[in-house]
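agent> Task received from the user: take the single chain below, predict its 3D structure, and emit structure tokens. No templates, no multimer pairing.
agent> Plan: (1) validate residues, (2) run structure prediction, (3) serialize to tokens, (4) report one or two observations.
agent> Step 1 OK, no nonstandard residues flagged.
tool_call: predict_structure(input=
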Amino acid sequence: MKNNSRMMNFITVLTVILIVFVNGKVASATSIELTHEQKEAYYKQYENIIEKVKEEYPEAILKVVSFNDFAEEDWIEPEKFEQFAIDRAKLTFDKEQEPTPFFGGSTSKMKSKSSNVNSVSSTVNIAGSFNTQLDKVNDRQSFAGINDISSKATSGIWTQTGYSASLNDSARTYVIDVAGIYTSNGIVSSHNLLVY
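)
tool_result: status=success, residues=196
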């Protein structure tokens, strides 16, 4: 009887260990371990995939992260990489989230632009600092200039490359086009985010 109990405990412990081991493998199944030669072969496939996707989506500006900058977690099966590349080609930051209220002296504001492609959400927060002045003719505040426009992604890497702005509505609103480069999943893409 004692041996049966020990055997059952052993089987239970072994089962738990196997479940933990298998679940650990499943959780990290998105990235794979590759030799240097395998990585070189995958990288060539990734480059070919990007070229193919750019032919299908000519408006998309895509490239593969340089081989030396490729993160370990980004080495994935080429089929999955192709899906990421297609999703990135379709990525548009067109959903504007509710703006946050003005800060302090009504000269700073933040807005967010987001996108959701195949359950992958990407958001870029855009912050602006502005000069205002009293429009004595209309007895109201109006914009006099921009101190700074900055932006940051909530995931991946967003590098702002510039912005352009134009005043509208008798200097009561700005239309701002923020340009940047978004890097995620081994793919680099260029985007313009339009905020009002």
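agent> Step 4: summary for the user.
Residues 36-90 form one domain.
agent> Done.
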